[in-house]
């Protein structure tokens, strides 16, 4: 009886589209990428892919350029994430208070997040222009020395971090504001009775209760920062002198500029492992923290 | 927190990680949808009177459709308004799509890898992708097509341009844009300082030094400083000092001539360039030149409008053009085909595709696109006074001069151009960042370039 069959299997049928989507659009590309990573292939229609086993991985791990890219990825990620989390939480705390024009401030503050990253990259490229850009005009106006920004290997990553912080801090704030709204009032009242000060209340009540939320926000952001591509490619394309070449950019270069599909794939597999590893560490941290407060 | 929640969060993390990488590796699939879109029989075209060059009965491609993919390039802007005439004369429908350079390469690569029948005709960069595309079996060799119609006059297309578009003795595409490197300078500044237009690289360095005044935000020289983009522009320095990227199948970017050329270029940018040159490709270089803050600029002549168009340049009426200055081996700028038209080897209707190319690169149409400022590859059009009306007269003289001694490549001619360019670019970037011990850097880059060349031999 088909009707009964549907009835009994309804829970499977409902999730089927989602499962199919994940299989076709996510799992398949990943497995395919893993497969290509064992081949040498320039996408030729004439020369078929050549099986090279783990050679691609071995070659990558020997390359100083790969390690440099991995270093740049971590540098960019750690600093951007740290600044965004601290700033994001601070701003969320500010915005959770009542003041006039609060909604307007909130809206304006969230705008960078909605903007298209590549377009923003191009705008920042103009802002950072050392001779005619707005950033240096501002520095000069307040009597500071102009900087090279994206034009100097040492300043390029910090400059990009500023862009990332500008664009994505609002996301952290948004999540943390949601978390703030769920904190019960009672602990504060109890603290008031005990005569706790503002700082004490923040450190002993707000922060611990917010911690799970902050960790979720940080984890979401972590994955996103690690894979940052658009703003880097739109502004420096990995330069100057490879200073901003992250793993993602290097993967693109290997794939679409050097046409080394096998190498590019093996890099992506390693990158996948890195992202996965860091994410698992975050989940483990969260678990431990929960155990502490349970 | 219960178990379900924990599992959910772990699951969420995994799915998100997965989604991220799926975004990075989405290389398969692509554009077969377009090919299913067959032409609606072009009622519009048959209703309008045919444009005279073809008899009404001779609409050989009635009802056919081809897909054309162009770069966002002035040539594409010039050809698009002319296409309706072609459609009316042949009965063919031409669908046009445009992309920025990098996206174009990527789009074509993805389409061809997927074995797509579209696009039928596309713009490509013979020196950048030509070898790879051809050797991957993606391009239709055109040798059998070009001499079918004597009126096309294939011999009229410049030899060096054809040389650029030839791979393994086969014609991979038809040149549409040719370009040479020239020297742009500020007439007013040179006049005020009493400096004659530099004829040699030494004079250029001296003049740039004299006009360099960073305190007043006035800089002597600008050119591309980004790793890969700079390679094509340093090439003319290299040739003019008597070097080249390769000597036969030996990499030669660590020779004394090469080091001299790279050091000159790098030092000009380091000592007399505006701040931030390391992150400049041509838009930034022309941008700051157009802001009136730089005295000299070397780049391709085909970009001259960025310096002389008043909407882009504040010094539009003060820009002078000169042939590339001479080094130890004379003035040897590159003289290359920067863009060509090619046919997809899997295109279902190659005759229709060729008909389009034949039309778009005919004397008549090249004249029309060249009048709009797109330097073409046909000798007869350059000899025709009307053919040069799209350029300032001074520039025409410079172009004619540059073509004489020109070299037919502006980057290492290998399959994997991207990697080879990065090897060369690294040397120059190191010089710009102040590295004084250049020889070891160059030796290492030379090895990298040699590895790229050696790989080609197995293909």
From TrEMBL, chain A:
Parts of the chain that traverse the membrane: 12-34, 74-95, 107-128, 263-285
Entry membrane topology: Multi-pass membrane protein
SUPFAM superfamilies from the xrefs? MalF N-terminal region-like, MetI-like
Alphabetically list the UniProt keywords. Answer: Membrane, Transmembrane, Transmembrane helix, Transport
Q: Does the keyword Transmembrane apply?
A: yes
Where is it mainly found? membrane
- Which Pfam family would be a valid example here? BPD_transp_1
According to its UniProt entry, one GO biological process term is: transmembrane transport
Record's PROSITE patterns? ABC_TM1 (PS50928)
* Superkingdom of origin organism: Bacteria
Ranges for domain ABC transmembrane type-1 come to 70-282
- Signal peptide start-end: none
In the record, the note on similarity to other proteins reads: Belongs to the binding-protein-dependent transport system permease family.
What's the name of the protein? Sugar ABC transporter permease
From TrEMBL, chain B:
Locations of Low complexity compositional bias? Answer: 38-59
**Which residues lie within the region annotated Disordered?**
29-59
Keyword Metal-binding on this protein? Answer: no
User: Which Gene3D superfamilies does this one have?
Assistant: Periplasmic binding protein-like II
Q: Supply the InterPro entries for this chain.
A: Bact_solute-bd_prot1 (IPR050490), SBP (IPR006059)
Per UniProt, the keywords (alphabetical) are: Signal
Keyword presence, Signal: yes
- Signal peptide annotation: 1-21
User: Could you identify this protein by its name?
Assistant: Sugar ABC transporter substrate-binding protein
